[in-house]
Design brief:
Radius of gyration: 25 Å
Number of helices: 17
Helix content: 25-40%
Strand order of the largest sheet: 7-13-12-11-10-8-9
Structural class: alpha/beta
Strand content: 15-25%
Largest sheet: 7 strands, mixed
Number of strands: 18
CATH topology of the largest domain: Aspartate Aminotransferase, domain 2
Bound molecules: pyridoxal-5'-phosphate
Number of domains: 3
Oligomer: single chain
Shape: globular
Distance between the termini: 18 Å
CATH superfamily of the largest domain: Type I PLP-dependent aspartate aminotransferase-like (Major domain)
CATH class of the largest domain: Alpha Beta
Length: 480
């Protein structure tokens, strides 16, 4: 990148300084759009010829100052993004550490920031946006239904809920479903169902039921969900926790067998641990768990909130092992990337343990949610997103392995749920995510070493190949 030295009075050092500053910045962009969108300080116009060479920093703004005895000049290109970042940091709780990018629009696999930069979304809102952003059919259903009837509570029947539940039960091979909103509410519902089953069907003494969970799990953020967690940060100073959970190692069949006792109600497991680091158990693990649960009259609860709905190349990830759990929990992509929709699905005799007034949610199963949920399931099937997830996942997985980057310790996953483990000698996963952002790919680390790669299931070959190439270039840049 060169800066033309056609501006007479400035010293060569100034131009070197300017050039260096521009070298530090990293993404090319359209100069016209930049000026349309950004506010530039009053004396910056002089430097307009140079901006054409500028590659703005990841914050979308460039702060150039030449001082130290030369002519003192400040060029400030202030991004709109800072205002929003500061606003969130000032008025919002700081319970997330977002990458410094402010998004304003999404379409398909891509999102745009407030400065007009386009990114490939390889995170899909932790798999909630499997259908891509603003899927036209889903947006159309949402518009139509919200103009007709959105929320009436479950005090009344609506014409939307039955078709949605019927479709979901059919696809998940379950008898009945209980609708909630977020994933963790559906998990909570599953825990309640399992405990009630333990007391009323299995005959466990009151308040003695135990539920086995796996270390490294992620089932959400309520007190019950963090009571199941082994992650210190998720639990610190949130106690006391409800009792009745027993932790075992993930992917350890013997540990499950050993942990079961007469008071065991259920075993809760993610077919692939997502937040825990995209941990893929050996083939046959879930099937072995199912057998152990059956033999011991223990319910198998699969948390498919992240792995379900085609994310791993099957409708449910449990299908890779041909498993048919007692309870399945779905969320995230069930809302088509537009709305929170979750379900606990189970066999009739389990769901029927709930009687009117036992459990519920004002918004759960509302007609808007039901209409979107049904449309999300239909799109998944009609547009063959599950098959695409399998094919594109295979391609992406293979492509990432073939990069043979010294920074990549392992690439693992199924379908389009992929974890790229960064060698602990290299940069941390957050740094990799920040660099990927500069190169136009958005994703998020999970723990210190794993970069999560989970694009919308609509992604096509060309975009997958671009992503592989760009990830390769980014990693190369980190080793050079
Ligand atoms: C496997 C799993 N279970 C439960 C949850 C919680 O879902 P929600 O954030 O919608 O409450 C998540 C969210 O990441 C998840 O990945």
């Amino acid at each position: 990148m060169r800066v033309a030295q056609n501006s007479d009075q400035r010293s060569p050092e100034f131009f070197r300084f300017l050039e260096q500053s521009l070298q530090l910045a990293s993404r090319a962009r359209d100069i016209q759009r930049l000026f349309d969108r950004l506010s530039i300080s009053h004396d910056a116009s002089f430097y307009v010829p140079f901006i054409g060479f500028a590659k703005p920093s990841r914050f979308g703004h460039l702060h150039l100052a030449a001082g130290q005895g030369y002519i003192i000049v400040t060029l400030v290109i202030e991004s709109l993004m800072n205002k929003f970042i500061e606003g969130e940091n000032t008025f919002g709780a700081r319970n997330y550490a977002p990458l410094p990018v402010v998004l304003t629009r999404g379409e398909g696999c891509h999102v745009w920031d407030t400065d007009g930069n386009r990114y490939l979304d390889m995170m899909s809102a932790y798999s909630a946006v499997s259908h891509g952003h603003a899927h036209p059919k889903l947006v159309q259903v949402m518009r139509a239904q919200s103009g007709r009837l959105s929320v009436v509570s479950r005090a009344f029947y609506t014409d939307q809920l039955a078709p949605f539940l019927e479709k979901a039960c059919g696809l998940a091979r379950m008898d009945r479903a209980l609708p909630m909103n977020t994933g963790v509410e559906a998990i909570e519902t599953a825990l309640k169902a399992a405990r009630r089953w333990a007391y009323e069907v299995k005959g466990i003494a009151d308040d003695a039921a135990e539920i086995i969970v796996c270390r490294g799990n992620f089932h959400g953020r309520t007190i019950a969900a963090v009571a199941m967690s082994s992650e210190t940060q998720y639990r610190r100073h949130f106690g006391p926790f409800p009792p009745g959970f027993r932790s075992i190692d993930y992917a350890d069949v013997q540990a499950l067998e050993a942990a079961i006792n007469p008071n065991t109600a259920a075993f809760v497991v993610e077919p692939i641990q997502g937040e825990g680091g995209i941990n893929v158990p050996p083939n046959g693990y879930l099937a072995a768990c199912e057998t152990i649960c059956r033999n011991n009259n223990v319910l198998l609860i699969c948390d498919e909130i992240q792995t379900g709905l085609g994310r791993t190349g099957k409708f449910l990830a449990g299908e890779h092992d041909d498993v048919h759990p007692d309870i399945v929990v779905l969320g995230k992509a069930l809302g088509g990337g537009l709305y929170p929709v979750s379900l606990m699905l189970a066999r009739r005799e389990i769901v029927d343990l709930f009687e009117p007034g036992d459990h519920g949610s004002t918004f759960g199963g509302n007609p808007l949610a039901a209409a979107i949920g049904l449309a999300a399931l239909n799109v998944l099937i009609d547009e063959k997103l599950i098959e695409n997830s399998e094919a594109m996942g295979r391609r992406l997985n293979k492509g990432l392995r073939e990069l043979a980057s010294p920074l990549i310790k392992e690439v693992r996953g199924k379908g389009l749920l992929i974890g790229m483990e960064i060698d602990s000698q290299g940069p941390d996963a957050r740094t990799v995510c920040e660099r990927l952002m500069e190169h136009g790919i958005l994703t998020k680390e999970t723990h210190e070493t794993v970069v999560r790669i989970a694009p919308p299931l609509i992604i096509d070959r060309g975009t997958v190949d671009w992503a592989i190439e760009t990830i390769g270039k980014t990693l190369k840049g980190l080793t050079d």
